[in-house]
Predict the structure.
Amino acid sequence: MTAPLLPPLLPSPTDEKADQKASAVRPSAAKGEALCRLGDLSLDAGPVEIVRTLALQRDLAATWESLEPKSFYSRYGRRLFDLSLLAVFGVPALAIGALIFTVNLVQFRSLRKVFFLQERVGYRGQIFSIIKFRTMAEVGENHFDSWGAGAEKVRVTRVGRLLRNTHLDELPQLINVARGEMAFVGPRPEMVEIETWAASVVEGFTTRLAVPPGISGYAQITQGYTGHDDEAYAEKFRVADWYRRSQCFSLDLKIIALTLVWMVRGRGWQWNQKSVSTGVAFPTEAAPTEAAPSDD
């Protein structure tokens, strides 16, 4: 199993207990490099260093536990919900996926280029490979640099733009759901570099990872696409944090329904928009304000 990415765990300002716990176990920047990954320890590491690393991981696990939703649905029903949706959407997804597979094979003229795999940060900081249908020409530079410069709008193909607008490029992520790496609903998993950047500019951003990442989420149906923008990512965190606190069966069902509407309307990939009006309102007084553009 890939070693988890464990950046300094920044608590949400509204979680007082989690704040106290995380403050007690948050590693310093210097220790973070040496102690956050057990897998990074060399065979020559001394017993004291190994014990400290294990203790840190134990304390971080307790912090994650304190941040997770405690409802019966969140602990047990959510996985059943995902498996039920896989059974419902599995056959149609295979049919549509076979068509997209053929189009991409003709377009890119290579079986290797039909899909796009990329490391993302998932549940509790675990790194996994997300699977998507390829929608862009290959990039010669770093993907993070390309994202930061907004180069995706130049690299995307015509078919790729359609797939992104309808979110059909995400269909292969049903495999990630089947593996248990993702859920149907949850915060979108970020690239390792983006997660690291966002955690450095948005306090508490890492706490999103206390719930499994999703193919869709509340941010996706209220924000759209987010580029390299501090304010937009701060709003994305507010939405994700509200979802973490409010997660329930009816909310997940609502998000799935609104996602289907979003796909039909072709609004999945919006560029340079400060707000996207969807008619979706947060039902609680403590919820964040209407959001700005979000992730792919």
Q: What stands out?
A: The mean pLDDT is 75.
